[in-house]
């Protein structure tokens, strides 16, 4: 059976690793702060001493860390993944990183003889616990095929998207649509209520028709309650919309609706809502 | 038991009337071309001789005709609904008409002593046949309460929205969101594919996440197949977006995303796609 | 010599009539409140007793009143211009009115045997006094030719634009450009100053280059001084932008920049600046 | 008298250097291809052998080269300006370069003990010949003061704008306004003509009013003649608009009109007009 390494035991990583252990995989975990590994060892995991040693002893090593700097740190250096990975072993980084970081990690691994997949996920804590993440995989196809049984445990779908970079592109496209939808949703909810319609009724009618979707349901309840408790920070959405519009620029594509929605999120940032939930864009519209 | 009149036996009206008959209601039908009534008479309906006589003999009379001119025609004149409706009888116009037409009909009925509801529907042929329309009712609340058993047969939901005009407003808000969503969806599908992503994969990932909705599924398949067979004509969507933006103007609300999406649909009209499906907006983006 | 009638002696009309008198024309004036005519009689004008009598006795009668209702009022009724104008006499309405009002006046005059020109002006009090208005004439070409000597006294240019309605269209197009320019100017002034540039220096550099124009000079000084004393009310500009975008809709033309600038002016209205100068759009951008 | 070095004798540089020579300055020129210096030597210039030697022998050395790579090349390396400039001598780069290139050059010069000004210009061949450029200077104020007599020969204005980077910011702001104005101008010219107005008449009326500016005059003639001979390439304008919107992003400023105009220029690029004049944006609107 494939032996699995798992680096990074934060909220997301811990939930994902537990699912792998419970599914019967032979899992070796590592975390910068080793105490966080205790709970998983109790469940049956081995504990590694460094990213290097984990990568050297496991068939496939997964990583799930918080940002590009952390993703680079566990890959590079004398104790990093690249130093340990041997000919043919696999490394799958599931962290959300930018294109150039992903490419740097890919180069480091393949130069060391390893195989690499980027596999950023769509979904937060609950889907990670439930094993219903959407995993956007791109890179080495043979590694993807071998990793599928593990992906099936962690996610509800895990399409293979092509070369390194395509996972990040997919996430950008989906988030751009999400931002545009939230902007038009905010405008529609504002217009309806100013026209005298009841907010709850609006949500009910929307929920019954062709445009019904989980986001409108969740964010709709939030904006009627004027509760903007952060789940996806508004400033991150604006950053993704900016990057999506910039990608359109590079690919010679005019995206007026996305560009306008981007400016709406910038307006919300300017109004001081950067660290609130994306639903707070409604506050600058209503 | 409430006796029901039904005026207008086009594609929509015929399906709706059949459902009422099958549910056991005492239904009297009328159509400008009387031959269309035959099939319903076979199923158990009575046949009326004029809108006036139907309205005079039934507790509640429904109408479902094609446009504002037809809606006015069956209400006004010596053989119209207003001439027949007596004190306390009800008239429910389910046609899609503009605000001022709806108000003219409301005035004609109430001046004649009748009660009035506007009840435009969301949904096309299939939901009409399946009894799963969304009915947006507004006007006389007592009539609404009496009509609910019939609404329950024709639709899957039929919220009461307030004064005459609110049904039309609700439809405008929903269609505005629909147009904005289709514009950002077209941009995202274009961006993703230009970035090298497979169109089918894009649709799969979207279908699995928080923004999944029936419209993206249906229109997504259409645009990948480059099939713009009309279900909702693009020019009608653009008209609705124009009216929604104008309503924002009247209510002192700035709607930049809707306004931009409106211009995208105008661009598609300019390119010659007025009579194709709303999905054809994609052709001017890609 | 051509005898001239002049109806309406408000701020604009009085200045224009004085210029005609001083230029040696034979001028008969009329104003709803006759006391306002005294000053002009002193300068040599005759005083008429009604729009009807003025139109009946003068070769060409001009009108300059405040709104469409006033423009209709002096034209229609037993004492109106149409009742007095004979075969071949001319009537030139220089008031700013909408298309349909202009057409109603045109019909009333031509049905009575008269000739008609619409001639809305661009420019306010100072250009009216200085005889440097821009006169946008459209309608009867023979009347235009006869009126040219008078136009030359009142304005610095008075192009003939075609059929009745073209004068109003020209004004709409110019005001739409004005609104779009003011929106991008506000954004540029905000961006420059946030980037650390001095506002005065920005205006100097703009004034020296290819985009230098009187409006940027005048409004630029206003916005640096935070002085929004009304010269052109913001709500009127927003109305013109709305009409221009609607005209594009009718003519099958997509106008995304105008539509976006229109939403910026709506945002300013929503923020409470309707009755301030158009320059106040800057306050919602900075 | 101040001795002046001039590096780069292309269309712009040659015209500027000639003006300095004719004004009586002691000028030493250098060009990568030395033959281009001959004409200036005939007029009285000395000829330098390298950027290093020119910078070492002149009080102030100006450079005007075609792009960031060329600007870096003449500054760096064993024969570059930085290698020759001594304590207190001045270097003024008038080329149009991006922020980071300008900062790299500034660092190289100041680390070598020299003083630095960035001074990008607004204006093309004709203003360079006529000495009517707009010079946007930023950096060392003492050097600016010493260079003023030379700036006065080359330009009609040369404001001092602050720290290195402010010259580039000013140019970006002005070009952003230019792009936005050209977009709304294209929309207005299209709308007017579709409404039946004569294009020439439109330009005349615009030229007489508050929005009259040299750019509308020049570009207006071009678009009526359907002549898009390049003076300012469309792709460069789009790049500047993209950078301006990105600067707004960085400074937390929402710029919807600029963002929308940027998408209009992207639409024009997509349609294949990248290398035509900026006026070609009209072709995608009309």
Automatic annotation (TrEMBL), chains A, B, C, D:
**Domain called 3-hydroxyisobutyrate dehydrogenase-like NAD-binding: residue spans:** 165-284
Record flagged with keyword Oxidoreductase: yes
Q: Which UniProt keywords apply?
A: NAD, Oxidoreductase
* Gene Ontology MF annotations: oxidoreductase activity
Domain of life according to the entry: Bacteria
Task: Identify the SUPFAM superfamilies for this entry.
Answer: 6-phosphogluconate dehydrogenase C-terminal domain-like, NAD(P)-binding Rossmann-fold domains
Q: Residue ranges of the 6-phosphogluconate dehydrogenase NADP-binding domain? A: 3-157
Give the EC number.
1.1.-.-
The main enzyme category here is oxidoreductase
From the Swiss-Prot or TrEMBL record, give the protein name. NAD(P)-dependent oxidoreductase
